Amino acid sequence: MEDSPFLDHDQWTVNLLQVCLHLQSRVTAAKIFQIIDHKPTVDRNSESGLELDSVSGQVGLKNVDFLYP
Questions:
Q1: For the chain, give me the number of helices (H) and strands (E)?
Q2: Distance separating alpha carbons of residues 39 and 42, to the nearest angstrom
Q3: Predicted TM-score (pTM) of this structure
Q4: pLDDT at res. 4
Q5: What is the CA radius of gyration of the chain?
Q6: How far apart are CA 31 and CA 38, in angstroms?
């Protein structure tokens, strides 16, 4: 069998998947840094506003996915 300069279907698929995963991770990282770099509109050092004596309740998470490599 001759060596071909072209990728076979399986190699091409793996390479495409790697490129897609790399691009997805870059987009995700950009979104995370956008959130981290966001300047809040609320001044946390301000004395104005309502200060609560206590807070109670529950927090629920829906449609959350975890992916481990």
A1: 1, 0
A2: 9
A3: 0.46
A4: 64
A5: 24
A6: 11
Identity of the amino acid at 68: Y
Helix, strand, coil percentages (3-state) for the chain, rounded to 5, are: 40, 0, 60
Helix (H, G, I), strand (E, B) or coil at 36: helix
DSSP-assigned letter for residue 24: H
Per-residue burial over 11-28, b = 16 or more CB atoms within 10 Å of its CB, e = otherwise: eeeeeeeeeeeeeeeeee
Q: How far apart are CA 12 and CA 32, in angstroms?
A: 30
For residue 31, pLDDT over 80 is answered with: yes
Residue length, the chain? 69
* 52 alpha-carbon distance from chain centroid: 33
